[in-house]
Amino acid sequence: MPLAEIKTNVQQKMTASIDALKNNLTKIRTGRAHPSLLDHVHVDYYGTATQLSQVANLTLIDARTIGVQPWEKNMIAVVEKAIREADLGLNPATQGDMVRVPMPALTEERRKEMVKLTKVEGEAAKVAIRNHRRDANEQLKKLLKDKEITEDDDRRTQDEVQKTTDKFIADIDKLLAQKEEEILKV
To answer: How big is the CA angle at 74 (ends 70 and 77), to the nearest 5 degrees?
Structure first.
């Protein structure tokens, strides 16, 4: 495996870890309404578990309310039940042909819990990044042992992998700081 391939592989895996972190951070409530909070809600659509966004329009009514308008009127009760049972702490209410999902205000204690949860997610992402670095370094050691690369190439590539790791760890710290600020903003 050439050195360029190892570096590219590590870069791709670390990018995937960052994307997973971003996805996980969108699930953490900030007190403001955001349609992506309902991305993981599935409804029973004629016997098939279907994503809510596939059976309804998701809109922001105001800063604290999400509007869910099912495309079929008979889906209103099913959508409301799915949101209520999604364990998001939301209490939807039907209003005509729309389901309104108000975001409850977060208490200071709950905000601190959310920040802790954010830090746990960030630490998990950092561990994943470090694991990718370790895997790349093991590949380099194997190449060096098999005498496919020189010690200079090994050292140089390890330094590059470490710089990539440091960059991604800094990106994670930046994402966590933004999310923490978003959560603590009243």
So the answer is: 75
Tell me the chain's radius of gyration from C-alpha atoms: 22
**The pair of three-digit structure tokens given for residue 167, joined into one six-digit string:** 């960059």
Distances (CA, A) of 108 to 24, 120, 139: 22, 19, 47
Rounded-to-integer distance, Cα 87 and Cα 51, Å: 15
Contact 146, 1 (CB under 8 A): no
Is pLDDT at 129 greater than 90 in this prediction?
yes
At 11-41, the pLDDT tens digits run 999 999 999 998 888 877 666 777 777 878 8
By C-alpha distance, which of 108, 99, 90 is closest to 70? 99
CATH 3.30.1360.40 occupies which residues in the chain? 35-102
Contact 154, 144 (CB under 8 A): yes
Q: Which residue type does 115 have?
A: V
- 160/183 Cα distance (integer angstroms): 35
Burial of 47 (0-12, 13-18, 19+ CB in 10 A): exposed
| Fold that domain 3-27+107-184 belongs to in CATH | Topoisomerase I; Chain A, domain 4 (1.10.132)
